[in-house]
Amino acid sequence: MLPSTWLSGNSRIDSDPYHASEFFAERNMITAWHHHLKLLGILTVLLGSALVAVSEEQSKEKWTAPGAEARKKSPVAANESSLAAGQRIYVKRCVACHGRTGNGDGPDAADLGIHPAKLSDPAVRGETDGELFWKIPVGKKPMPNYGTRLSPTDRWNVINYLRSLARR
Prior knowledge:
Elements: H1 4-7, H2 20-60, H3 67-70, H4 80-93, H5 95-98, H6 122-125, H7 129-138, H8 152-166
């Protein structure tokens, strides 16, 4: 049987009965997409590597509060209610990495790749309340910033509690 294009009144003959040109056009488009996806994958890996390198570099930098922040004094007295509130926040937000006694030995510490600050260390104890008050909301990888998670009063309570850890 002859193709219908041969039998119709016009003398047109189907020059591409298997639609090969469509197949090759589709194949070329798929090949182009494949190349674009490979390029996108390579760029993603490179960008990810750069971000990791930058974050590792930042984690090695000295973490110093600006002078005005370091001079801040706590408006919250270190009384029983402040220490109790600070302990509740510390247990909820800090123990996993810094540990119950502030020795940087919390259950999540091993997974961080770096050692969390030993809050019981004399160097940390020597930091001013203002320095600690600045560091809590700023954070430093892998420590998240707690700027929106803790109110200023909560931060002062945690600092009061940290000071009590040093005396234990």
